[in-house]
Description:
Layout: H1 26-58, H2 68-75, H3 78-106, H4 110-137
Helix pairs in contact: 1-3, 3-4
Amino acid sequence: MTAAFDPPATRGIVAPRAPRKRVTGRRSSFEMYSWMFMRLSGIVLVVLVLGHLLIMNVLDGGVHRINWGFVAGRWASPFWQIWDLLMLWLAELHGANGLRTVINDYARKDGTRFWLQLLLLISVVLTLAVGTLVIFTFDPTMS
């Protein structure tokens, strides 16, 4: 049968036991590491975010105690600065990696894909820079 007579649902489907093309090179290893990063960062983020929510919203009176002084006391400790920094970086990179995958899946034109990924990169860099700057330069004595 020719492709013209094949039902539309079966066109382009490879037989399960057909030999697969092996993709080698930089692109495939990047995608593998990207996939691994999503899984590992997701696990770490669950711990960080649940810990954050528990401490900020449940323990010792909940959200009513969160104010300037609470944040100042929390960020006076390097432990909490690193906790919040790690949460910021992992959440931003995890989300950006997912959005990069969506852009690659749905942007049909190479030019569109390039500009969307460039905008994504710029937003990620700006968000990480501003967030990191706030965490490490927070001044509790500011009036």
